[in-house]
Specification:
By secondary structure, this protein is an alpha+beta fold. It folds into two domains: 57 residues, Phosphorylase Kinase, domain 1; 145 residues, Transferase(Phosphotransferase) domain 1 (Transferase(Phosphotransferase), domain 1, Orthogonal Bundle). It has seven helices and nine strands; from the N terminus they run E-E-H-E-E-E-H-H-E-E-E-E-H-H-H-H. The protein is globular and about 55 Å long. The structure holds adenosine-5'-diphosphate and magnesium ion (MG). The site of adenosine-5'-diphosphate has 19 residues, from strand 2. Adenosine-5'-diphosphate binds next to strand 2.
Length: 221
């Protein structure tokens, strides 16, 4: 057994195999079909040159072996310092993902914890594609902004500014001409998080006082 990652749903660990480092993700028996789905999605995304870990093989029907991406989890990075640079990187990662999939797919589980900042190149890699599905790309942007805002410390001005930048950068890359749908999707995702959470930790206050203007990118007032 190697080092295990923090994981809500599956068992994810670093392993050594034939002298190299890999990540082994084991799905619960009842969700074994998700292993194959994630493996196939990763294979396609890898071929489309997206920054995702390369899928190596499926050792069993509920396991996937992936290339290891060395680096820090973006959730830890953003909690330490909400560097505006991450906004541009996330916007461009999502823009590439959405355009490569014909704007018909949503990553799903678009949470900061599912992104890794590569140790040497500083590029952002996306992980966790078991929930990838057909859907409107705006939900990914809403979900990632919600995840920036709802992690402690919540709704800081630096985090709101990060979301403003992310929304602005994503808009500038796409042919969308107004940020409102992305801001609405953020509020929707925050409400969904609130319904799921057992302990509120102050989120309901922020959601009740959500001000659309705070996430409006420069030039859209
Ligand atoms: N290929 C990888 N390289 C490095 N770290 C990874 C890799 N895949 C997953 N991780 C780490 O393990 C965590 C859990 O993996 P993930 O695929 O998100 O599982 P779960 O579906 O259980 O959330 C991720 O948040 C990430 O920090
Ligand atoms: Mg995950």
């Amino acid at each position: 057994m190697g080092v295990s990652f923090k994981s809500r749903k599956n068992q994810v660990e670093i392993i050594r195999w034939r002298g190299n480092t890999y990540v082994l993700k084991t799905f619960p028996r009842r969700h074994h079909q998700r292993a194959r789905w994630e493996y196939l999605m990763l294979r396609d995304l890898n071929r489309l040159q997206l920054k995702v870990p390369p899928p190596i093989k499926m050792p069993t029907s509920r396991q996937i072996l992936l290339g290891y991406v060395p680096g820090d989890n973006l959730c830890d990075r953003v909690s330490a310092f909400a560097d505006p640079r991450y906004a541009g990187q996330l916007a461009s990662w999502f823009f590439h993902f959405h355009s490569a999939t014909g704007n018909r797919y949503t990553k799903g589980d678009a949470h900061l914890r599912n992104f890794i900042v590569h140790k040497w190149t500083n590029d952002i890699y996306g992980v966790d594609f078991e929930e990838m599905h057909r859907g409107n790309p705006i939900h990914d942007i809403g979900a990632i902004c919600a995840s920036i805002l709802d992690t402690d410390p919540m709704f800081t001005s630096a985090k709101q500014s990060l979301c403003r930048h992310l929304i602005g950068q994503y808009l500038s890359l796409t042919d969308m001409n107004t940020p409102e749908p992305l801001i609405d999707a953020t509020l929707l995702a925050l409400r969904a998080t609130l319904r799921r959470r057992k302990r509120d930790r102050g989120l309901s206050h922020h959601v009740a006082n959500f001000n659309l203007q705070n996430l409006m990118p420069a030039g859209f007032f």
